[in-house]
User: Fold DUF2231 domain-containing protein from Saccharopolyspora rosea.
Amino acid sequence: MPAFVFGLPSHVLVVHAVVVLVPLAVLGALVVALWPAARRRFGWLVVGITAVATACIPLATNSGEQLRDRLATTDLIRQHAHLGDELLVYVAALLVLVAALVAVDQRRRNRATGDLAPKVAVGALAVLAVALAAVSAVQVVRIGDSGARAAWADKQYTAPHPEHRPTG
Assistant:
């Protein structure tokens, strides 16, 4: 992946896919875990979104490493990189859980037996998916916050001067 695209660091562009898709995957995982009718209708769509989100994370990590190598290393950048490296584990695990939840639920519905084990498995997978969705959401917020601090911590802002205000 090129380090720059149209003069911008590619990380700044690629990271937006993660910022949009991971929270969307988290919301989708919560919906299909907690709402069986949505699971039947949208379960595989959520699995697909979560898979794309998972695939985007290494691209963001790689482009972030390329950017980091061109910057003076600070504690804020190190913290951001460390947090970013952890996200793939959480979202990949969420992908596996959501896929298992949808597959087990679909199999349970297709068999339509009175067996309690598939219902217990669906319930357990749903609880784990909710927990991992929460962890993934918290982690993506922590990464975004640390990235913003790394990029903007040394910048000083002031109120705009009256002569710089737009008219109209």
About this structure: The chain has one domain: 8-153. Strands lie at 4-5, 8-9. The mean pLDDT is 89.
